[in-house]
Structures are given as structure tokens and as C-alpha cells.
Amino acid sequence: MSDISLGSSVAGVPEAAPRQPPALTTGPAAWMRANLFSSWLNTAVTLVMAYFILRWALSFIDWAFINAIWSVPNNQTQACRALKGSDHPGACWAVITEKHRFILFGTYPYEQHWRPALVCVLFTALFVVSAMRRFWRWELAIVWAVTLTVIGVLMWGGVLGLEFVPQERWGGLPITLILATFGLAFAFPLAIMVALGRRSSMPAIRVLCIAYVEIIRGVPLISLLFMASVMFPLFLPEGINIDKLLRAQVAVILFAGAYLAEVVRGGLQALPKGQYEAADALGLSYWHKTGFIILPQALRLVIPPLVNTFIGFFKDTSLVLIIGIFDLLTAGKTAIVEPAWQGFGVEVYIAISLIYFIYCFAMSRYSQNLEAELNRHRVR
Amino acid sequence: MSQSATDPRQFRAPPKKPLRLSWADERVRAIFWQVLIVGIVIAVVWWLVRNTQHNLEVRRIATGFGFLNREAGLPIGEALIEYTPASTYLRALMVGVLNTLKVAVIGIILATILGTLVGIARLSKNWLLAKVAAVYVEVIRDIPLLLQLLFWYTLLQGLPGPRQALNPVTGVFLSNRGLKLPFLDWEAGHSWGLLAFAVGCCGLYLFAKAMRRRQMQDGQPRAIWPAALGFLIGLPLVAWWLGGAPVGIEWPALRGFNFQGGMSVSPEYFALLVGLTTYTAGFIAEIVRAGILAVAQGQWEAAQALGLRPGVVLRQIVLPQALRVIVPPMTSQFLNLTKNSSLAVAIGYQDIVSIANTTLNQTGQAIEGIAIIMLVYLTISLSISLFMNWYNSRIALVER
């Protein structure tokens, strides 16, 4: 047996001809063959798509960069208008150069703009810190409380030598961030209570929670905002007047609460029944059971859908435009009302889209990564 | 007799404890909390109602729906039913509801088609196609819908006027006054054809059901396509021919400052439809993709191993399983699209929200106006959910 080795040829069997290494299985050419030109149909699709993408990309680069005007002196927009009507149209980014402070901060006093700017940075920092898993502990709640207080002080002023700025003059990105963040901070506890109530064994509480969730989810956010802006003043006793921003904030909280409650309920339902029974068997009270056993596990299960709801909700704050609250989108829309800048809406909307996109894209990427991380133990 | 029926443990109910009036009794506590919370809710509602009544008295606003029969006097650009500013508020609100339904129904159909295509494209083996679909989904989902609607509307308004209208295909004009398309010169024959098509659909459904029943009995598959051809094309053609076979087509033509004739799509409707469709399609694409990925690879392989053709595998094996995953989230997307159509108010399309809003501004009937908006949307939402739940229960997995 030992005389058979790999090198020796067996008698009678002809030596195989030396073979070429398999061609085109690695490298860019092979990749293209597999992914772009694997069949006639695929080749046709690739070519047609490549043609259109190139054409659109080239004309977009022409419009957005090569032919664009970046600044004009003293609101003189004739050059922009001439460019718009010409055969080689270009973007008029001058509208952004000129109006970016207004779009970002609205009618906040010009020389105080560092304050809303700092607020935006603080908000963003708060989001980033909350997103990191190493900071997920109860101290985070203190960080939130402190940051939100600092933000309030910065926006209002009136103390520490800061000039007082009334709420009517706030505007732009800080309003969007305030509506979204405060909305979340208050809607989340509400949502947890409603979700628990919907699974409660007490029929009256269950019915109340179901009615709340289903009615809010059945109507558009606009109708709630309208309610906040026209009906809310009727609800309150005479003489008490609540600020418009606060009313919109309440509508946003009620709206978000119903949607988040459904997500939380999903987590409560996904938890194995044994967890509930084990907690009961240990003789824990309802609140001990919920606080120490159920919620920590249930919320962890629903973090990715929660982040997705946050994204939807961040985008939905733009609806306050319809009741005339000065958020980022309203500021952008107002910036082009001035006659000199009328007709440059596309540029402004693209710029605002970019801001929303950055925030939402970051959140959605984060949610995807988190989902992968949390599901790691399930992947074989 | 089965084992479980004779098992005494199945019959014995837990011992009933008498209700003790003590805090230690769980049932007493439950009743206490429920009474307390319901009491608080009732008190708050009562307080709000009393405030509202007082405020209404102070402002001399009469409540009630009597204003619905007054003359509206508000102009409406596009209406599916006959409407003049002299019509009543009720009529104006009906026009609004129909306009909402018009954009929601067409939007749902278009978004489903576009979303399914994009979702499948994202799974394509063609790298370029998959990447383009992925970028589309990411970009469209991360920008607020309202911003997209304003963007589309601004883009449409930036188009040249009717005299320099874009004319991509003969008879189709795109200008800042909207889209103009050639349309059939509508006559009785067309209505008959349409009616026959509807009858044909019902007939085909019944026929297919009967054929399936017979296949269940003897196992012989029966071809349905000849009957489908007859029901869906033959029957309407015959009706159309009997109705006089009208063939006239009305072409839009420039007269004065605007186009006359043909089918007209207003820029507001067009912007709203494009915005809603592209936005919702981004979400539907992800649902479709998840649904297809949820069908195990083994299902494809097993079906192929049985010698089924690829089309049959998709229709009979994969799709029914994917639909179970797709339908529930799709329902909420349809509901979202319908609710999002209320953003029409921002770009001036006169849907129910826009008209009810104008009504409440003109009459001061804030509570009634908002109640009408909410009622309309709750009704539409409930109808869609009922229909989709019925459909979902039909395709759901039949388990033991």
C-alpha cells in the first residue's frame, strides 16, 4: 500500500494534459461578468441603466456644480434668473449662501445665533451619547434632564447674562429638534403605560387604552395638529392661554405615544410567557415584575423598531408647517417668499432634504447595526 | 371517547373564593383602580366639555351641524361630482371626500406596483439594478413626505407655461397647468363596455371557482385562460360594438391661454400623486423584499425538484407564503398613504382636510369641522383594515 504516492502515475492511465487555471473566476472582470453581464437580459438591463444614470448624473453635475452660481452681491438675483432660463440651466446656490442663517435659525436675533447653533450641537451630542451602548444605564436619564435644561436656558435666556428671547422668535432647526426630542422624552413613558394598560387584566383600563391607540392611529397627524391649533383654546378655562408651540408639542406627544405604544406592546407580546409566570411564582408585585423582569427584556427586543418609529416621527414633525409653526421646513419655505428669491425653491428644498437625510440616515444605519448586534446570538 | 374528555381535571373549575371586602383581595383592588381611573377620565372630559361650552357661549358660536345646509361659496378646482360655489357645505365636503378617495385609491394601486417592482429589483442578481433600487429606497425613506410634496409641486410650477408646454409624446402636454392627455370621446358605448368588463370579472371569478372545485374532485387541471380571454376582452368588446362602436378620441389643444379637451390632471393632484406614490413605494419595496426573503430557499429547491416550472413555482409555492408575511405590514402602508394624503392641504389640492379647514375658517365651527375630518379618516381607515383583515384571514396559514 505504501508504494502508492501522490506523485506516481498509475500504470496504464495516460498522464493528464496540464490544465490552465480556471479563467475569469476572480478579479474585476469576473465580478462584472457574474454581476452585470450574466445573461443577455442582464446585459441589456445594465447597459440601459448605465446610459440613463450617466446621462442624469452628468446633467445633474452640470446643473448643481458647473453652471451653478454660489453667491450674488446684495440680493441681485438677475444673474440667477438669466441662468435659469438659459439653455444650460444651473442651480442658484446663492439663495443658500444668503439665507442659510435664516433657514437654520429662523427669526432668532441675528447676533445671538450662537445660542441655537449650540443647542443643535447639544441635541446632536445627546443623540450620539444615547446611541452608545456603554452609556445605557440609569445615569443617562440625568444627562438627559441636565442637557434639556441647558437647552431651555440657552433658547430662552433671561438668566446668566443671556438676553431673553421670546418663544415667538424661535425657529428653524432647533424647533424641529425640540419637537422631536421633547416629543420622544414624554411620549415614551406614556407609550409604556398605554402598552401595559392594553395588556392589563382590568377590562375598563384595557378599553380606554385600546380606544386611545386606535383613534389616534386612525386619523392623520394633521387633524390632531388642527385640533391643537383651533380646538385646544376652546378646551381650556377662560384666560388661560397656552403657547402655540406647546400645543403642537402636546399633539405630537399624543400622536407619537399611540404609535410607540404599539411597538412596545409588540415587545411585551414577544416575551415568553414563562417570564411572566416565573416572576409571579417569585411573588413579585405587579410593578416589581414589570420594572425588573418584563420591561428590561421587552424593550430590548423592540429597540430596532423603536428607532424606526423615531425616524418616522422626526420626519413627521415637519407637518407643523401646516399650522404655521416655524420649524426647519417652514423657515425654508418662508425664505423664498421674498420677491428677490422667489422661484428658487428647488435649491432650498434640496438643502433642507440634506439636513433631514443626514439625521434620518444616521438613525437608520444605527438601527440596522444595532439589530445585527442584538441578533448576533441567533445567527449561526 | 377521547382521553381528555374523561379526564376529571378538565372538568374541575378552580375553587371559587367569595369576594371579601378587603385590600388583600386582588379583585377588590382591580375594581378600585378601574373605578378610580375611569372616574378621573370622566372628570377630565366633563371639565373639558364644560370649558368648551362656556367658551362657545362667550364667543357666541352656535354648535350643531346646521351650517352644512348653508351655501358654501368656496370655489373648488376639481370635483368628481357637480359642484358650484352656490352649492351647500355638505356638497363641498362630499367633493372633498371624493377627492381624497381619488388620490388614495390611485396612489395605493400605483405605489403597490412601483413598490413591488423596486422590492424585486433590490433582490436582482444584477448589481447595478439592485444598487439603484437600494439607493432609491434609502433616499426616499429618509426625507419627510411633506418636503417631497413641496419639492414636486415647485418642480411642476417651474415648468414652462401652456404655450411652451413640454410635448414628450404626441397629444401629451406637460406644463405648469398640469398634465394633459388625449382621452376617449366618452359615449354610451364605452359605458356599456366598462359595465360588461365588470360583469366579466365577476363571471370569471365564479368560473374559476367552479373549475377549481372540479379539479379538486378529479385532479385534472383545467385551462382557464380561454375563458379569461372571453370574459375580460370578448364580452366588453361585444358590448362596446353593440353600443355603436364609438372610436372618437379627444385630443387636448391649445386655445387661448390654456388647453381644452382631453383628460386633464391638475398640477396639485399630479404632485400629490407622484409624491405619495414614490414615498410609499419606498416602504412597500422593503416589505416585499422582506416577504420574499422570508420564504426559505428550500421551498424553491423542493418545488424545482418536483419538476415544477419556474412560473408555477413563483405563483403556487413562493407567492402564497410570501403574501402571509407581506399583507399585514402592507395594510398599514395603505392606511399610511390614505392618512398622508391629508398633506394635500400644504400644496393646495382640495381634499377633505383642505375643504373642512376652509369651512371651519369661514363658519367658525371648529369642533364640527375637525370632527368631520376625523370621522372621514376613521371610516376610511376602518374600511381598509376590515378588507385587508378579511383578505389576510383568507391567505393565512391553516393550522391545526
UniProtKB/TrEMBL annotation, chain B:
It is found in: Cell inner membrane; Cell membrane. It comes from the Bacteria. The chain crosses the membrane at residues 30-49, 103-121, 189-208, 229-249, 269-288, 370-391. Signal peptide: none annotated. Pfam families: BPD_transp_1. Keywords: Amino-acid transport, Cell membrane, Membrane, Transmembrane, Transmembrane helix, Transport. It is a multi-pass membrane protein. InterPro entries: AA_ABC_transptr_permease_3TM, ArtM/GltK/GlnP/TcyL/YhdX-like, MetI-like, MetI-like_sf. Residues 97-388 form the ABC transmembrane type-1 domain. CDD domains: TM_PBP2. Belongs to the binding-protein-dependent transport system permease family. HisMQ subfamily. This is Amino acid ABC transporter permease. The lineage of its organism: Bacteria, Pseudomonadati, Pseudomonadota, Alphaproteobacteria, Acetobacterales.
